[in-house]
């Protein structure tokens, strides 16, 4: 087939690389080549990314910047939870995405439109435009969280944290994060449904001065696939965040988007089967999303909604390697109770 992949982020760059072996694939990216920037905090599970990249002949180890040992979670009132990590790393997301497009047909600095791609005769258009969902109908229940992130270097200053650190916002409406990179640098960011993230970042940066290397701001969609249908219309099919593959509790979309891309590759000739596979794969997102919405509304009860929290815990516990951390019910209970 002649395929257009629109958006060369995590899912789009993977699809361009993998599908080019059997199809005539062109990737379209609005950012110009050489100015292309990968967004988000670059935190992921080495275990899962290594598996996903291996069939493409890519050694994920080459991209790892920092290997976490434990994550500190601020519970407020001077209390902290420490969660053991089992493969959580930060990696050079930008370099990996660029490498995935090398030797492939990528058109950078081009804003693809439906009419343009129709004129160019593509058999399939894959919408990897994340929140924009540029080629698919609007989502009916679209819940998104605004985020801002700084890349900071602390050369000559004390590094605020030696390992991963997060601080949830009240109502689990988002969280502040500190993800170490290499050579005393880090991604420091925050996202909050109630827009308290900028204030939180300003306070942190004043208390912990560092050199700002880069600033990125963009919202992320946390509505799960269940609420992001249709996944396909005509010859257009969505993949990744455009159809809701961001884990609502953590705002983490790297691995889910790549898993979604794998499902699309496996079901490229059967889009109804792709839809069913996506809904099944990410069914556990629904439990988390329902819990988050109850917290947002101030209606969550640890007693009444315990079954919902246990469903979330059980789903995550089975996938510790995928999350790169030990999943413990006591941690989840303390975090949900504190916020």
Please explain how this structure is put together:
The protein has 339 residues and is of the alpha/beta class. Among the domains are: 1-42 and 92-143 and 223-282, FAD/NAD(P)-binding domain, CATH 3.50.50.60; 147-218. It contains eleven helices and 18 strands. Helix 1 packs parallel to helix 6, helix 6 runs antiparallel to helix 7 (271-281) and helix 8 (284-296) packs across helix 9.
For this entry, give a set of tags:
alpha/beta; 7-stranded mixed β-sheet; FAD/NAD(P)-binding domain; 339 residues; 6-stranded mixed β-sheet
Biggest sheet, open or closed, and with what strands and sense?
A: 7 strands, mixed
Helix content: 25-40%
Structural class: alpha/beta
Order of H and E elements = EHEEHEEEEHEHEEEEEEHEEEEHHHHHH
- First-to-last CA distance: 50 Å
Range of strand content: 25-35%
CATH superfamily of the domain at 1-42 and 92-143 and 223-282: FAD/NAD(P)-binding domain
CATH class of the domain at 1-42 and 92-143 and 223-282: Alpha Beta
Q: What is the mean pLDDT?
A: 94
CATH topology of the domain at 1-42 and 92-143 and 223-282: FAD/NAD(P)-binding domain
> Low-confidence runs (pLDDT<50, min 5 residues)?
none
Name the assembly state.
Answer: single chain
Shape: globular
The order of strands across the largest sheet is: 6-5-12-13-14-11-15
- The total beta strand count reads 18
Output the number of helix runs.
11
CATH architecture of the domain at 1-42 and 92-143 and 223-282: 3-Layer(bba) Sandwich
Q: Supply Rg.
A: 20 Å
């Amino acid at each position: 087939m002649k395929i257009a992949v629109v958006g060369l982020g995590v899912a789009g760059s993977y699809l361009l690389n993998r599908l080019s072996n059997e199809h005539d694939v062109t990737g379209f990216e609005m950012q110009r080549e050489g100015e292309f920037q990968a967004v988000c905090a670059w935190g992921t599970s080495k275990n899962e990314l290594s598996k996903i990249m291996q069939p493409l002949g890519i050694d994920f180890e080459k991209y790892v910047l920092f290997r976490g040992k434990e994550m500190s979670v601020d519970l407020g009132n001077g209390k902290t939870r420490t969660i053991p990590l089992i493969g959580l790393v930060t990696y050079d997301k930008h370099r990996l995405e660029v490498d995935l497009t090398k030797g492939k047909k990528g058109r950078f600095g081009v804003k693809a439109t439906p009419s343009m791609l129709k004129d160019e005769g593509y058999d399939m258009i894959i919408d990897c435009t994340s929140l924009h969902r540029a080629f698919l109908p609007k989502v009916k229940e679209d819940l998104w969280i605004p985020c801002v992130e700084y890349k900071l270097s602390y050369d000559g200053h004390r590094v605020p944290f030696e390992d991963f650190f997060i601080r949830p916002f009240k109502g689990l409406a988002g969280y502040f994060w500190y993800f170490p990179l290499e050579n005393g640098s880090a991604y420091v960011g925050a996202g909050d449904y109630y827009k308290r993230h900028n204030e939180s970042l300003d306070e942190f940066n004043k208390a912990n001065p560092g050199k700002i290397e880069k600033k990125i701001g963009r919202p992320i969609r946390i509505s799960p696939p269940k609420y992001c249908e249709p996944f396909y219309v005509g010859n257009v099919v969505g993949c990744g965040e455009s159809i809701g593959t961001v884990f609502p509790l953590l705002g983490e979309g790297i691995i889910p988007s790549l898993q979604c891309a794998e499902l699309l590759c496996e079901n490229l000739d059967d889009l109804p089967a792709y839809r069913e596979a996506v809904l099944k794969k990410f069914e556990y997102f629904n439990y988390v999303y329902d819990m988050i919405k109850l917290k947002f509304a101030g209606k969550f009860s640890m007693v009444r909604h315990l079954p919902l929290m246990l469903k979330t815990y059980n789903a995550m516990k089975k996938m510790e390697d995928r999350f790169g951390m030990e999943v413990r019910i006591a941690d989840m209970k303390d975090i949900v109770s504190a916020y």
